[in-house]
Specification:
Elements lengths: L12 E6 L9 E3 L8 E3 L16 E6 L9 E2 L16 H17 L4 H4 L3 H13 L1 H29 L4 H8 L3 H13 L2
Helix pairs in contact: 3-4, 4-6, 5-6
Length: 191
């Protein structure tokens, strides 16, 4: 799974698989015996043609936001070691996802306080961890309270000034409309 701390699970990336016809298969289901749940997965290495599982012929970049990369990369199962099927080159899809994240970041609203941390700011934030765990926890708690207040005030001001354009807010935050709405509501309720 490819992740960025900035966007959380809104933009988790992975190499997605395609079948011979160019379709994206559904998840592989595992029956673990009796019980109400059936495990499922879309990990690329599972689509190797094992009985009951389709064979993937290509991979491409995929993101949890629904975006799929255009470039397709052939998947030659003959070159994949059967005992370690998860070890094959995924650099193409990973590069596609990196480009997608760069595009998402370019469309978000700039945030001076986090975009390029100064070395002085980094030293101030990491200094408590060098002093031991308790000062680090205290610093984290202080930072949480400060960010909670700042987020609540910003959400309140956004709502009262002009009423937020949901698509604009989603793009500015780098996520979907539902996530943006949920985040604004969460912050506003903490005021």
């Amino acid at each position: 799974m490819l992740e960025t701390g900035e966007f959380g699970d809104e933009h988790e990336g992975r190499p997605g698989v395609l079948l011979a016809g160019g379709t994206e298969p559904g998840p592989v289901h595992f029956d673990a015996g009796s019980g109400p749940t059936v495990h499922q997965s879309t990990e690329r290495y599972l689509y190797d043609g094992t009985p009951g599982v389709p064979v993937a012929t290509e991979i491409r970049g995929a993101c949890s936001c629904g975006r799929r990369g255009t470039p397709r990369y052939p998947l030659g199962w003959e070159a994949v070691e059967r005992r370690k099927p998860y070890l094959f080159d995924t650099s193409g899809p990973e590069d596609d996802w990196d480009a997608h994240i760069a595009d998402v970041q370019a469309r978000t609203v700039p945030c001076r306080s986090t975009s390029r941390p100064s070395s002085a700011r980094s030293r101030r934030l990491t200094a408590p961890t060098a002093e031991g765990p308790l000062p680090a926890i205290r610093a984290a708690a202080t930072l949480e309270r400060t960010t909670r207040r700042a987020a609540a005030d910003a959400a309140y001001n956004l709502d009262t000034v002009a009423g937020p354009d949901r698509d604009g807010v989603a793009q500015a935050l780098g996520g979907g409309r539902q996530t943006a709405r949920s985040r604004l509501t969460h912050y506003a309720l903490r005021r």
